[in-house]
Write a structure and sequence with these properties.
It contains one helix and no strands. It is mostly helical.
């Protein structure tokens, strides 16, 4: 009687299971990377606004008047490379004329 000997390779079913598992893992990882990027841009925008608002307060303290434009604080030591734009929309921040703060989001952004 002649016996069938199994080859040392993988069966089609085993390969299919591995491909499915890798596909599921890839979809989870890619989803997290996309979400993490958007969240980090939102957090950077919030941090930029906090730093700009602090610079506005220092400007008012030093000069006795509130800055009316972002360009007024652009030369401050806090921003040696200039005031950053919103990382979400790449639009410049704007100062609210009533509150003298950068609040909400930059014009034309989210």
């Amino acid at each position: 009687m002649h016996r069938y000997q199994a080859s040392p390779g993988f069966s089609l079913l085993e390969l299919l299971a591995v491909v499915v598992i890798l596909g599921i893992l890839a979809s989870v990882v890619i989803g997290r990377i996309i979400t993490t990027g958007a969240t980090s841009r939102e957090n950077a925008c919030a941090q930029n606004k906090a730093e700009i608002n602090a610079a506005l307060e220092r400007y008012q303290f030093d000069n006795g008047v509130w800055a009316t434009d972002i360009a007024d604080i652009a030369a401050s030591p806090e921003f040696p490379e200039g005031v950053p734009n919103c990382p979400v929309s790449d639009a410049p921040y704007a100062i609210d004329a009533v509150t003298h703060r950068v609040s909400g989001h930059a014009p034309g952004s989210h």
